[in-house]
Amino acid sequence: MRLSWMTYGVLKDLSRQDLLQTLGDHGVEGVEFRTDLGHGHGVEASLDDAERRQVVADCRAAGIEIISVATGNRYHDEAASDLRDQIEQTKVRMNLAADLGAPRVRVFGNNFPKDVPREKTIAQVADALQELSAYGVERAVRPSLELHGEFDWRSCRAVAEKVDHENFGLIWNSVAEDVVDGSVAQALDTVWPWLDHVHMHDLAGQGYPYRELFRLLHRKGYAGYMSAEAERRPDRGVGDRWMFAAYYADLFRAYRDLARG
Questions:
Q1: What would the pLDDT profile of 141-160 be if each residue is shown by its tens digit?
Q2: CA distance 222 to 196
Q3: Among residues 56, 90, 141, 261, which one has the fewest Cβ atoms lying within 10 Å of its Cβ?
Q4: For 32, phi and psi rounded to 5 degrees?
């Protein structure tokens, strides 16, 4: 298990130089760039070829691997034109990921529209992801569907079974919906065949069973990245962001070491 950082949240306003410096200072090995929100790192689909090469060079110089381009694209829209727009936007961001050497783009389901049968929405999302999985093969980029919004582990498994493509994955999101009778074991077992990546949130609170999650991932042989996606409300300020990253990285390593026994 290796630590990476999703730029959504605490570190979103840092320049690319400051972001990579902060991650490198604390032994974070990977970065997941969130696009389309104007984050300080400046990694967007609008970058030209030279700018994309510069992003790669900056990350390589810092010793940080680009592990993902995180989008907000989703495929639940009822209007065919909106759905097609989301698919085409994803393709553009998959091209960005390919140029950056990132193996995945993060995408969503995300909701179940009212008065639309759930099975229809699941099939629609799966059809979109089949198209995107095929699109990504030659680019060595896969769409990875996050367990997010109303698309929980049950729904995402249903989508994955319909997609049925080797160039597809699921992203664990570490949310309350994962927990059944105090444990994440059932949910993790359910999505494990497609598990591609892991997102974490507040390792120090909110009652999520991270110790169990780390232990189960270790037992299953998960050796991939786990991204910090850490936020803070205005009434719970983050304080010094450098120190926040330090504490987060140390807590991650403590959980990982405990899991290894």
A1: 999 999 999 999 999 999 99
A2: 9
A3: 261
A4: -120, 105
Instruction: List average pLDDT for each run of 10 residues in the chain, which is 261 residues long.
Output: 95 96 97 97 98 98 98 97 98 98 98 96 98 98 98 98 98 97 97 98 88 98 96 70 94 97 88
Closest CA to 190 of 164, 217, 156: 156
CA 5 to centroid of chain Cα atoms: 9
CA distances from 8 to 63, 85, 119, 194, 254 (A): 21, 23, 31, 24, 23
**How much is the mean pLDDT over the chain?**
96
Question: What is the spatial distance between Cα 210 and Cα 201, in angstroms, rounded to a whole number?
Answer: 10
Q: Is 249 left (phi over 0), alpha (psi -120 to 50) or beta?
A: alpha
Cα–Cα distance, 60 to 62 (Å, whole number): 5
Q: Within 10 A of 166 (CB to CB), how many other CB atoms are there?
A: 9
Listing DSSP states for 105-141 in one string gives: EEEE-----TTS-HHHHHHHHHHHHHHHHHHHHTTT-
| Exposed/middle/buried for residue 39 (C-beta within 10 Å: 0-12, 13-18, 19+) | buried
> How many CB atoms are located within 10 Å of the residue 146 CB?
24
Q: How far is CA 172 from CA 17, 69, 160, 192, in A?
A: 28, 16, 13, 9
Task: Give the H/E segment covering residue 69.
Answer: strand 65-74
